Amino acid sequence: MPEDIELHRPYIDAVTMTCPDCGGVMRRTPEVIDCWYDSGSMPFAQWHYPFENKETFEANFPANFISEAIDQTRGWFYTLMAIGTLLFDRSPFENCVVMGHVQDAEGRKMSKHLGNVVNPWDVLDKQGADAVRWYFYANGAPWLPTRFSHELVSEMQSKFMGTLWNTYAFFVMYAAIDDYKPAVHAADPADFTLMDRWALSKLNTLVKFVDEGLQQYKITETARAIQAFVEELSNWYVRLSKSRFWGKDWTPDKKAAYQTLYTVLTTLCRLAAPYVPFMTESMYQNLVVGNVEGAPESVHLCDYPVADERLINAKLEDEMEEVMAAVQLGRACRATANIKVRQALSTLYVKGAKLSDACADLIRDELNVEKVEYIDDARAFTTYQIKPQLRTLGKRYGKLVPAIGEYLKNVDGSAFVDALEKDGVVKFDIQGTEIALEKDDCLISPAQKPGFVSQTEGDMTVVIDTNLTPELIEKGYVREVISKLQTMRKEAGFDVVDRISVSYRASEALAPVLEKNAGAISAAVLATAFGEGDAPEGAYAKAWNINGEKATLAVRKN
Questions:
Q1: What is the Cβ-side half-sphere exposure of residue 111, based on CA atoms within 13 angstroms?
Q2: By C-alpha distance, which of 231, 282, 233, 224 is closest to 257?
Q3: CB–CB of 49/92 below 8 Å?
Q4: pLDDT tens for residues 319-337?
Q5: Would you tell me which of 205, 253, 463, 516 could form a disulfide with 454, CB atoms 3.0–4.6 Å apart?
Q6: Is pLDDT above 50 for 9?
Q7: Which of 478, 474, 472, 469 is closest to 504 using CA atoms?
């Protein structure tokens, strides 16, 4: 140890301490009160202000933000503010990003005694640094306690990183097949579809929200917004646009689909780079470097994206929210009626929204209905189930209660509820006795009219007509066969662009349907030959139940 250790400037002989090992002397200066006063003086002491560096101090004071764990509330946060206010009449920091403590999966403090400590290297080696970063960003507000475990990280990783990577992988697969070049296959903006314009509008709305949010240190809100966008991108845009990537020719529609998804993915790389730096770098290297002349060699050398306000269409985004809400309710209707989406239906009725024809087309395609109609009142398709409230009626009407229940079972539910709402009471005669029922005397629940199923969420009600005609049943067969053949393509290990031959043996009811719709089925499954017959040698064959009809399908790669 050196003979003299000077801890601070200017050094003043005040209190000395001798090292018992080497005899060296340490001198303490009297202006150091304690470590908290010392740390609270950091904003000016680090520059040796006010004795020098006045310009440097003034250029850096106050700090944009400070960040520490919540236990520093009565420590560093307090002393910084107290000393800053005393000397400069203001806080020395503009923002304080407080971190909550990390707990185990059950919300207990981690400790060696409890054996609930998670070795960070185990998580980093298994799930990666990006997954850990994303979990802390998106799980909850930074100042709240955070439960931590392998399972919780994996769940959050799958919701966002897995979905984003799958969307990226989808694009890369087709881009490699088609040898897509952003500069060569540029699309005309006039060819962008409704879905393309929506995706680009949502993207730029997201960029604006994240950019403004990060300036306000809103980490969790912006992370969740990115996650929500990626989910919609995958489950809505990509799913509805898949077929646009399948054709061989570079049609205007195909160029627009490629350019839209490429723009979204490359912008997401830059937008999410501060959150998941390694994943976005990997995507950027493959999507941009080598494909865009003069592009920075790393995503972390790029400018942060700026929203293009010209591409933001708030009305379109609101309309698409209503489309997705209608689709969600329509799916719920089908689930209630136990009718698969592949079975065509005649009509979907929507109350609470009136959308453009293009939006209605999306609903029709997504829910496999012939037409969409907008209504002001859904009561023509819905009713109410009325039952007697035994708690109130038993004392008043005794043995007549079963007869009252039978009467209510057969009453027009909608008219009964309307009368209750209007008059407050409904009167009728049972075995010569006048019965008077108020609202509290009845158990009222929504019910479906035969042939219709409805679902309501907020101001929107969706009703599907479940009555099936022979034409609708035929379309259901066709969609089901296409689905089965697509499954067989995958099971047989065919590539997405492979052309195939299809042969079939089907029941008496199904065979003419397949013959009649051979062209539509062939186009959907990339079949160059489609006909009735036994499975040829080398074909992959499988027996199926097609909506109650038996069929054996066989596929062979050409």
A1: 5
A2: 233
A3: no
A4: 999 999 999 999 999 999 9
A5: 463
A6: no
A7: 478
